[in-house]
């Protein structure tokens, strides 16, 4: 399999100035049959010196030429390429001329003399300079040419071209003698000094002179040799116009000749072999069939249609992760469910084949909900292992991983949120009056109280949510059913008519509390109401029914004294509150009359629910519910509890409930008995 050099290689003979220089070949390998294309690039070495067309150059320059004038010099040729080709020129030191090295479009170099100091024939009739051409080899090779400059008297008008650059295009199969371009120059001098001769500039490459011919009298540039687009696409030809004066004036121009491609090369097509069983993850560029098509032409002439029907079998690789029908699932499960029931089927697909498409389902982080949920590894069915309680936890969030059986396996995560919906499994709970309490709480109403007077209020909550927590109050039993009524939605007990003297002094009311769930759950509360002028009468009645031989009778005096002091303090407090509310009302009326603004004004400081008194509700209840002193006109404002309480789970429901619900846990400014009473 070694590739050997058969004979001495000369890059310049093989490729000339073409770079890179490469030789292409094809190698056929058998068993299995494979075709490989190879290319050997012939690298250049610096084995050629630059060469000038002649060893001497002679220039005639008028002393009248101004500084800045440029004089093209003959270019050296170096058949090497790249860095080994001609790289620069150097000029021997002199006071009048500098050297300007230019680069052509094809990258070749040429030099121009630039007059920096005007010549003086009387001072110096001639100059001898040395131009050195250097390539880029290591060490560099060089060539020298002697430049003899004759300083002559002035021909004060040089020829002038009508344009500095000419452009033309010619097809590569154009026959010899075809006109390419016509250049034109004029000279204002008379006689020989005004006669113009056209010629190639001295640094025009020999290859250009072989392909193009210039008529020295007419300036017509014609095709001389055979043009080849595949070899050179653009020629940059430098021409000059010189008059016949003793010191001829010279003008220079450039002609850009674009070679147009023609379809002169037939395509070469080779079909060797076809491979099968291509893996689907084959990288772009993987050989499927050995197909070789070559056309040396360019653009449309180089476009080739090759038609070959090939059957390619594609083998599967695990390049597709499982895809779920949805990224997340929301599952709603009623509380008190049966353990072991399926609640969700996570659906996923994998477009791969065979084992690459076999899916398994697992719960990520089993330590968190592993005792509550389980998933079938094969079909993705999610089971609930235990009974859930809406009051304990409302939402569970977990991640299901779907993994295929490929190697390496690919996986997709799906989020699942399980929401526990509420059932009516909690009956209303009475906060006031305290159920099953040994203390006797008696509410007092004065004789002759008019109808519509609120006597007391039943305070209750329901641990359920939504409609299941809406409580309605009805009077189930009463000593005198015509005397008292209860608010359906707020539990407030009012006098239904004016109290008469013949009404019983003691009344017992049984209030039925029902929620709105299905089925309806209920509880009852018992209220004791005494008809008396003062609290003292009630206490007297209580004293009368006490055993006569109570050994603690001496405490009665102190109890009565405490009740009187508490009543006096309560009266003063209520009077102060009334005066303050009257003052705030008058202040708001004055502000309203002055601004006529309808902007809502934030109410003043809130009072705790009047019915929530010491010993009746947990401390956290004080942090949950606030309202103004007028419970019938104020909105309910809720805060999150500082500690857990039955009311904590009801805050969201209260805000979304109907207006009647707001009064279920609302107190009023009416007077209620103190714990001591």
From TrEMBL:
Membrane-related topology note: Single-pass type I membrane protein
Ranges that cross the membrane: 557-580
Coiled coil: none
Keywords: Calcium, Cell adhesion, Cell membrane, Glycoprotein, Membrane, Repeat, Signal, Transmembrane, Transmembrane helix
GO cellular component: plasma membrane
InterPro entries assigned to the protein according to its UniProt record, in alphabetical order: Cadherin-like_dom, Cadherin-like_sf, Cadherin_C, Cadherin_CS, Cadherin_N, Protocadherin/Cadherin-CA
One Gene Ontology biological process: homophilic cell adhesion via plasma membrane adhesion molecules
Matching SMART domains: CA
GO MF term (any one): calcium ion binding
Cadherin domain span: 1-52, 53-161, 162-269, 325-430, 437-549
Localization terms from the record: Cell membrane
Name of protein: PCDGK protein
Organism listed in the record: Calcarius ornatus (Chestnut-collared longspur)
């Amino acid at each position: 399999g070694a590739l050997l050099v058969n004979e001495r290689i000369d890059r310049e003979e093989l490729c000339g100035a073409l770079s890179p220089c490469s030789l292409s070949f094809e190698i056929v390998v058998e068993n299995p049959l494979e075709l490989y294309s190879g290319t050997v690039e012939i690298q250049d070495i610096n084995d050629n010196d630059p060469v000038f067309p002649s060893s001497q150059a002679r220039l005639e320059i008028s002393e009248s030429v101004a500084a800045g004038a440029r004089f093209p010099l003959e270019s050296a040729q170096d058949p090497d390429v790249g860095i080994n080709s001609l790289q620069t020129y150097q000029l021997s030191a002199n006071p009048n001329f500098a050297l300007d090295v230019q680069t052509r479009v094809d990258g070749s170099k040429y030099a121009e003399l630039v007059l920096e100091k005007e010549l003086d024939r009387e001072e110096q009739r001639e100059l001898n300079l040395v131009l050195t051409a250097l390539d880029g080899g290591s060490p560099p090779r060089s060539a020298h040419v002697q430049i003899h400059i004759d300083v002559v008297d002035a021909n004060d008008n040089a020829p002038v071209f009508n344009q500095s650059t000419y452009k033309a295009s010619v097809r590569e199969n154009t026959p010899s003698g075809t006109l390419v371009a016509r250049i034109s120059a004029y000279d204002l001098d008379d006689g020989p000094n005004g006669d113009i001769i056209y010629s190639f500039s001295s640094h025009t490459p020999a290859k250009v002179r072989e392909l193009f011919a210039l008529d020295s009298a007419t300036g017509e540039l014609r095709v001389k040799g055979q043009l080849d687009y595949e070899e050179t696409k653009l020629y940059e030809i430098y021409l000059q116009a010189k008059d016949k004066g003793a010191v001829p004036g010279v003008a220079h121009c450039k002609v850009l000749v674009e070679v147009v491609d023609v379809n002169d090369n037939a395509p070469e097509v080779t079909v060797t072999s076809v491979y099968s069983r291509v893996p689907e993850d084959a990288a772009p560029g993987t050989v499927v069939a050995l197909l070789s098509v070559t056309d040396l032409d360019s653009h449309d002439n180089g476009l080739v249609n090759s038609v070959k029907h090939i059957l390619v079998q594609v083998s599967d690789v695990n390049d597709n992760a499982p895809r779920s029908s949805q990224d997340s699932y929301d599952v709603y499960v009623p509380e008190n469910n049966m353990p072991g029931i399926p609640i969700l089927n996570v659906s996923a697909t994998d477009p791969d084949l065979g084992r690459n498409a076999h899916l398994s389902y697992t719960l990520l982080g089993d330590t968190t909900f592993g005792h509550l949920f389980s998933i079938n590894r094969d079909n993705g069915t999610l089971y609930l292992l235990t009974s859930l309680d809406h009051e304990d936890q409302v939402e569970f969030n977990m991640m299901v991983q779907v993994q295929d059986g490929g190697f390496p396996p690919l996986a997709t995560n799906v989020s699942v949120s399980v929401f526990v919906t509420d059932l009516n499994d909690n009956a209303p709970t009475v906060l006031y009056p305290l159920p099953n309490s040994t203390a006797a709480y008696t509410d007092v109403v004065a004789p002759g109280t008019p109808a519509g007077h609120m006597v007391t209020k039943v305070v209750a909550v329901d641990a359920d949510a939504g409609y299941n927590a809406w409580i309605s109050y009805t009077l189930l039993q009463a000593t005198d059913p015509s005397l008292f009524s209860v608010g359906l939605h707020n539990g407030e007990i009012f006098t239904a008519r004016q109290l008469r003297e013949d009404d019983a002094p003691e009344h017992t009311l049984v209030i039925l509390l029902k929620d709105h769930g299905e089925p309806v759950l209920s509880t009852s509360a018992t209220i004791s109401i005494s008809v008396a002028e003062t609290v003292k009468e009630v206490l007297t009645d209580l004293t009368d029914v006490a055993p006569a031989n109570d050994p603690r009778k001496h405490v009665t005096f102190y109890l009565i004294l405490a009740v009187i002091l508490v009543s006096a303090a309560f009266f003063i407090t209520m009077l102060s509150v009334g005066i303050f509310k009257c003052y705030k009302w008058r202040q708001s009326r004055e502000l309203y009359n002055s601004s006529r603004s309808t902007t809502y004004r934030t109410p003043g400081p809130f009072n705790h629910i009047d019915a929530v008194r010491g010993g009746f509700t947990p401390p956290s209840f004080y942090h949950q519910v606030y309202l103004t002193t007028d419970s019938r006109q104020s909105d309910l404002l809720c805060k999150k509890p500082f500690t857990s309480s039955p009311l904590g789970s009801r805050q969201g429901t209260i805000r979304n409930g109907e207006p009647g619900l707001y009064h279920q846990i609302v107190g009023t400014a009416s007077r209620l008995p103190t714990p001591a009473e």
